[in-house]
Amino acid sequence: MKLSYKWLKEFIDTELSPKEIADKLTMGGIEVSAVINMDKGIRKVITAEIRDVQPHPNADKLTFCKVFNGQAEVDIVCGAKNIKPGDRVPLATVGAVLPGNKEINEAEIRGKKSYGMLCSERELGLSEEHAGIMILPQDTPLGLDINTVLELDDVILEAEPTPNRGDCLSVLGLAREIAAILNLKIKMPKIVLKETADKAEKFVTVEIKDENLCPRYAARFASNVKVKTSPLWMQNRLRNCGLRPINNIVDITNYVLLELGHPLHAFDSTTLQDAKIIVRTAREGEEIQTLDGQTRKLTKHMLVIADSKKPVALAGVMGGELTGVKENSTTVVLESAYFDPVSIRKTARSLGLSSDASYHFERGVDVDNQILALNRAAQMVQDLAEGAVAKGIIDTYPHKLKQPKITLRQDRINKILGVEITFAQSKKILKNLGFAYTENTSTESFHVLVPPWRHDIEREIDLIEEVARLNGYEEIPAALPKGRMVKVGGNRDWQMAQTIAQFLRAAGFAEIISYSFIGEKDYAKTGIDPAARDCIKIANPLTEDVSIMRTSLVCGLLNNLAWNINHGSTEVKIFEQGRVFLGRAQETYAREDRRLALAVSGHKLEPSWNRKAATADSYYLKGLAVGLLDILGIAEYKFQPSTNTIFHPALSLDLVLDGQVSGTLGRLSPRVAENYDFPQEVYLAEFDLEKILSLATTAKKFHSIPKFPGIRRDLALSLPIKVSHETVMNQLRRLADPLVREVALFDVYQGDKMEAGFKSYAYTFLYQAQDRTLQDEEVNKLHQELVRKVIAELGAKVR
Amino acid sequence: MSLEDIRNKLAELEKQALGELEQAVKDNIENIRVKYLGKKGELTAILRGMADIAAAERPLIGKLSNDIKTRLEEKISGKFRELKEKSELTALSNLQVDLTLPGDPVGFGHLHPIHQTIEEIVAIFTRLNFAVVEGPEIETDYYNFEALNFPPEHPARDMQDTFFIEDKVLLRTHTSPVQVRVFEKQKPPVKIIVPGKVYRHDADVSHSPMFHQVEGFLVDEGVTFADLKGILTAFIKEMFGEQLSTRFRPSFFPFTEPSAEVDMSCFACKGAGCRVCKQSGWIEILGAGMIDPAVFKHVKYDPEKYTGFAFGMGVERIAMLKYAIDDISLFYENDLRFLKQF
Lengths: 799, 342
Ligand SMILES: [Zn+2]
Description:
The complex is a heterodimer. Chain A is α+β, with helices and mostly antiparallel strands. In chain A, helix 6 packs antiparallel against helix 9. The longest helix of chain A is centred in the C-terminal third of the chain and has 19 residues, at 776-794. Helices cover 41% and strands 20% of the residues of chain B. Chain B has helices at residues 3-23, 29-37, 42-48, 58-93, 113-127, 141-144, 177-185, 225-240, 293-299, 315-323, 330-333, 336-339; strands at residues 131-132, 138-140, 164-166, 169-171, 190-199, 210-221, 246-253, 256-265, 282-291, 306-314. The radius of gyration of chain B is 42 Å and the shape is elongated. Chains A and B meet through helix 2, helix 7, helix 10, helix 12 and helix 13 of A and helix 5, strand 1, strand 2, strand 3 and strand 5 of B. Bound molecules: zinc ion. The site of zinc ion has 8 residues of chain B, from loops.
């Protein structure tokens, strides 16, 4: 809402500067986001009259004009077509400065001297209008500085009232607010009407069919109206507040809306069938052509203003094209109504049609102010459009709207705020706000009657806020809660998530955060089976690419990998922790599972001149998974070949926890990789954090450190290729003597030096006793025994 | 020789040996030792002259010569060690290496700046005894709006453009629904901090359709607006710096009343006015207020008995201010050249 400082000063007497007013409003709860000086730096542009317009002898598109500047005629070459002798226009004289520091100098254009320039609205920085020269009203004095003429000495405050403060969407409303803050009196506009002898009812009748949606409808009638341009002062006000002047009647309704905050509408009464105004809901399927030229199909929930035959306006939203005031209209019905905010909002939203009027009605207007606004407009129709205003107001108000009465307790104010505001202070605030009240000094309480413009005040707490706000939040001290100790228990999962993030960070991974929504395209690219998805879709997505709540973190990870590789980062190690959305659930709408996913492409460790670079592989991810489980205190887990189709069939593993597949790791399936055009191998993993976190523990138990030294023995086995390490380990664990405390693989060889069909795995064994130092002979004997059994059981040979 | 002669000779010998030791190089140290202390050395030679000394005085001489011998041995071996270390050091220093070559990179990763900012905020509040709770991201109209006192068809809903899943089901537009979920399950006192993702139907340089908020709330008997001011002032100082001042100004949120916007003095210009603070000297950082009795009514808390406050902040906004990031979409592009800066 743009508030003109000059306009504001018609309502209150204050010497405060625009900036000071802005600060007061902001600290009172109406944020002023900008204070805009209307002075655009225009200098030496004056009002002038066109005396003569001739075609330019050397250019078809130009004219050669004589322009009178109040003292002398000057020659001007001009490119616009819309001027004729007698028009009053802004003339940038030689040496003038236009917005953007553009200087105007004497010039010769196609052989004709031009001593200045005629300006369009755009050249003056007033609007985007540049089709022609700006034509000023006929009564504009000549030779005056355009800054004065157009009131560019005004300052505009860009006020942003919160949605509950519909009452602050006008000069009057903001003036009232400032008056309450500064303890000032409001000056209301004086309205002098010279009504004709004929009663308004003679010309038009009003009937409200739906009192709930339209509790009050007031109208006035004027004849002999002359539709023409508004006087400059009105145009200036509108323009400074961001509106385009149209004609006096439209401008009057806009002016009154800006000033008093009540939307008005003007009908040409001759277009109303049977001179009737009926406020009713639309018939299903009924149509109306609105002012914007569009034909709108209506439903039975929408309120319309109709004549005896057809809807003539969408009540409170927009007028009808056919019944609006035109250039040649002479009889005008002015409407000032009160419409139900919810109904207006529903209508505006369902038609996708929002107007200044609907914006005000949705936020609630002042049912008493309705008459003031109507009279103010009528007076202007009389003064600015030569209208003859008929006697009286057609005021249909079947049931007076009730204002809430609220009890306000002084001790409650202080209990909520934690301050010591006195009863007297509260009283003064209520008074300054213009609230009617009765007081009870013994109980220190008030009975407050909420004024009709304050739709946001219904309860005691609303009044407490008023007291807090006008007393000043800065008056409330900063304390620290003295409350009881609270049991803190919910942080375990949060801490675990931090642990996981720190673990992966230490392992060189960068954390990403991707959108929770993905698209069909992602499913196509990853080849996730459409039948297997129980996915949740967004009804109104920004685009189709972000229309499905993700069921896996892999899509985001792969898209990001592609982005980074395409942007020159070929060493990529990324991870994400976040939720996936897996169909319906009980307590919440969707099952929202936490997942962890990671992707690697490039080397395990950042390559360096000083170490051998090793490319990432499935073993790298397996190691990370084991490390992660270890750090989370999970000792029981298993890996098994995976059938997850996003992964390479031979190079991927499922993590099994508690008998459930709880994640997969390995190389990205080459078929999927192709869809992303990855130029390098990609490894990835996704884990179910719900499962992992449910098993995670920080509990640890100490095992005593062996007191006696152990003895190591190594064994290199030549094994048939199909025998797995796991099989070997299981056998070794089974066959080894209890004195074997550790078995570990330390070397793998497969290649030329091996017999075809065989590979070599080398293991190291630690023999150690709890109660004595083992001797070589004893260990040798045990180890030889083990070797013998292993050979027999595994078909292995000793290398 | 008299006793006096021997004494003099011994002193002379010690002086001479020390002098020679001073000049010694590593290789002739052994020679010096042999020359003075060896079996055929000079000390032995002097002691041979003891034959003339009275038997009673001999032990005296013996002690004298032993002392000299001990002292010299110590000096000789000390000198030997010194020379040996020196030559070893020379040998080590002469190794031809280029230590200007880069060290092995540790290859540490990076946590997302949004994550880091959330963690920093949450850590401050957990130190103040707030417990972390997270809630669902897909919410119902009831939790996201209705129970938070957003009536249907109220213009306040325009503040939060919403993604819908179906009628009355939506992506939460703020973390505040968690208040209602917690109140439903727990009686006061409650003291909770809620970090999480939220969604709005909006995208430009300062808006992302998905972003993060941290919400906090405290409900108990006797909680006041003054307490809210205290907690948030403490938070802002801890998060952004002791020297920053804060400003509370009235605002509107359907689920709090009285409501406040909380500004902190601009860290970039110290309040003088600059581009960061849009010339105002203040930066809007938090929304807050006393929890509206209408919210308590939905969860059957007695508003006459309990009062509480709630506050919320946009993490992206804070991170953008903190790290001077000018485009919100950088957070979701996840370009490694961006992430590696954090
Ligand atoms: Zn600043």
